[in-house]
Amino acid sequence: MNLKAQALYLANCSLNEQGILDAQRVEAALAYIEKHFEHLQKLRIMQIYKKKISNIANAQKAHIEYCGALSQENLDGLKTFLQGKIGLNVNVDIIENQALLGGVKMFAADNVWENSIRLQIENLENTLK
User: What pTM, to 2 d.p., does this model score?
Assistant: First the structure.
């Protein structure tokens, strides 16, 4: 197995059963690299591993902004939607944002999804111009 394949394997091993990064597993992967690779190989595999772990960590962060009522059932549905779109389990920050006037706006990885009254008003204004 080449260094890239080994780094990607170790990155995947750094996820728990739910697909979330686990600090203990990351530490174990780093200890494995430290013990089993020579200096130049160690540097290269660490670069690849770090990039993959950073990508996973960034993809797992999500934000949901809302205005109005948001039940646990609605929230669970939004989390499921995000997980389906980015293919990973996500850690979600939930923020109330009155500027939306109603609805939701979600951010995950490099994506934005919005279904808010504010957006609908902006779209209507642009149509009428």
Answer: 0.60
